[in-house]
Design brief:
- It is a single chain.
- The chain is of the alpha+beta class.
- The protein has helices at residues 38-41, 57-67, 71-78, 118-121, 133-139; strands spanning 12-13, 19-20, 24-25, 32-33, 47-48, 54-55, 79-82, 85-88, 90-94, 97-100, 103-104, 109-110.
- It has a three-stranded antiparallel β-sheet with strand order 5-10-9, with no helix packed on it. The chain has a three-stranded antiparallel β-sheet with strand order 6-8-7.
- Strand 1 and strand 2 form a beta hairpin.
- 16% of the residues are buried.
Amino acid sequence: MKENEVENESFSENNEGEESLPIMREAGYGYAFDPNACAACEGACCRGESGYIWMKYPEIEAMAEYLGLGLEDFAKIYLRKVGHRYSLVEKQLGEGDYACIFFDETKKRCSVYPVRPRQCRTFPFWESFKNDEEEVRRECPGIL
């Protein structure tokens, strides 16, 4: 299977008659991911200890456009420079609990989902989880 290829491209219905997303697998990983678990998880992958949400220039452009902002304004409000790279800023929710600035605390999901960074689009298939399946299972209830 190619990188980020889904196991089944067709959609099925869940017990409530709603459309459900196909199980995802990626070569080299010993687990699969059920994206339907995201609705019940309340954004566990969007929050936790402080870290980095890396963005490349095309992602910055797309997100700024999505939000109706110029690049300079977007950068001033939402980015922090770390060395030669850029990361989205975080907001502190509590002691040791941080979230992406675009995590909607009421809806418990990403407010810029259509233009989220690659780092978010590829979760939970990160290189760091390839040899640490226990950690990804702790972080994500959608791991099968």
